[in-house]
Amino acid sequence: MNNITIGMSNKLSEWRRRVREALGANHYLLRSIDLALTTGDRGHGQLSLDAINGQPEPIWRKLMNSWSRPRWRPGADELGEASNVELVLDVTARQADETSSGAVLDAVTDFRRRDDPPPVRIEILEGTSKEAAVALIRAAVEKLDQEWEHLTRQTPRFIADMEDAQSHIAYLNEMDWLSAHSSPVEQKDALSELDSLPRLPAHHPEDESPF
């Protein structure tokens, strides 16, 4: 028998908790997970994980506390050596400059190489005062409380950057092609032809629908 790994067992146990809380104790996913954990068979475990990952978006959001499923996930090799690639909400907080008050906050979803990640991690830069740290954390908590639905349904930064890079490469290719047309008349005709070509859409997170 191909025995289940500790990592898969931990992941299935976490999914078991989520399924029971979100979908109830009689849901078929729960029975599938229990079978995998009871038999200790990796094949059963992978079938359970595949069934969870294949759930429609509304069910996925119930299991993931409203988080949207990214359109695709980068592999560990794309982010360096790691056994896991996780999607996180990265919240940064800075003190405002002397001309303004409050905190400057930024919150984006992005992928990280993480093994056995904690649900929440707070990092405080060396030299930061206690007062500043507490004030910034409170500001971050307020932002999460007010904007959770939007923040957990935005396009991850890694995907957005990849799409922007593709758009930029397409633009550069168009400019190289345009430069081959030397005369003003040829360039005008070439631009008109380029305008009629399909382009990758620009990325505007604020325009994304939560559904």
List the keywords:
globular, 211 residues, 8 helices, two-stranded antiparallel sheet, disordered C terminus, mainly alpha, 3 domains, 52% helix
Order of helices and strands: HHHHHEEHHH
What is the average of the pLDDT values?
A: 79
Structural class: mainly alpha
For the largest beta-sheet, the strand count, sense and barrel status come to: 2 strands, antiparallel
What is the CA-atom radius of gyration, in angstroms? 23 Å
Low-confidence parts, pLDDT < 50 over ≥5 residues? 197-211
Strands across the major sheet, in which order? 1-2
User: What best-fitting shape do the alpha-carbon axes yield?
Assistant: globular
Helix content: 40-55%
Q: Count of helical segments?
A: 8
Count of the separate structural domains: 3
E-strand count: 2
Alpha carbon gap, first and last residue: 42 Å
Beta content comes to 5-15%
